[in-house]
Amino acid sequence: MKRRPTHLRLLITNLALFIGIVVVIAATWNYWRNFFSGPAIVDDNFLLNAGASSKPGELIRYVELSDRQLIGTGWEGVMTQDGKCLYSDEFFIMPVKDQFMLVQADSPADGRRLIGPLYKFNSPVEREIYGSIQSEHPEWRGRVLPTMINGKAAFHVIGYLGLIVLCPLTVLSLVNIFRAICRAH
């Protein structure tokens, strides 16, 4: 069996790596667009229409809101391990014109400057809280939006980790593609 020349193996391997990187970036493009553009200052009209064309769990936009009233819901998400509390998250309701939006934050004071990803409900906990709020407050029935803002999300952490991995891999694959082409001539 005849082996391929080294430069051809180098070219094929690194082209596959580069194409894989491009596919990952294309599949997560919405996140990267929001990561690099930073939080968008949005208004109530944007919030009211945000969930109309999005899928559950999908990032709609990384947003920033100022001077918002956060009303406690009494709901708290608690993460435990071996019976010990690792962290807890409070859920609030925020008025948006004549409707309400679920917000995850540390305290009502976070409403002064609220920054986080806006997305449509996805997890069972979020759907349970949504249902509970609707049943505990019949006056809000049909007025709670199916979207929420997570003011506690470490939104940029994934992006920085991705850059630490993707940038060197991209440079490595491009350098090796260039080397393989030079060796072929």
Helix and strand topology:
Layout: H1 6-27, H2 29-37, E1 40-41, H3 44-49, E2 59-66, E3 71-81, E4 84-96, E5 99-105, E6 113-120, H4 124-136, E7 144-150, H5 155-184
Parallel strand pairs: 1-2, 5-7
Antiparallel strand pairs: 2-6, 3-4, 4-5, 6-7
Helix pairs in contact: 1-5
Describe the structure.
This protein has 5 helices and 7 strands; from the N terminus they run H-H-E-H-E-E-E-E-E-H-E-H. Helix 1 runs antiparallel to helix 5. Helices cover 43% and strands 30% of the residues. The chain has 2 domains: 68 residues; 115 residues, no CATH class. The chain starts with 5 loop residues before the first helix and ends with a helix. With 185 residues, it is of the alpha/beta class. It has a 7-stranded mixed sheet with strand order 1-2-6-7-5-4-3. The radius of gyration is 23 Å and the shape is elongated.
Give a short synopsis of this structure.
Helices cover 43% and strands 30% of the residues.
List keywords for this structure.
elongated, alpha/beta, seven-stranded mixed β-sheet, 185 residues, 43% helix, 2 domains
Biggest sheet details: 7 strands, mixed
Order of helices and strands: HHEHEEEEEHEH
Helix content: 40-55%
Q: How many DSSP E strands?
A: 7
**What overall form do the CA principal axes indicate?**
elongated
Mean model confidence by pLDDT? 85
- Strand coverage percent: 25-35%
Query: Termini, distance in Å?
Result: 24 Å
Rg from Cα: 23 Å
Uncertain residue ranges = none
Q: What spatial order of strands do you see in the largest sheet?
A: 1-2-6-7-5-4-3
Structure annotation, total helices: 5
Number of domains: 2
Structural class: alpha/beta
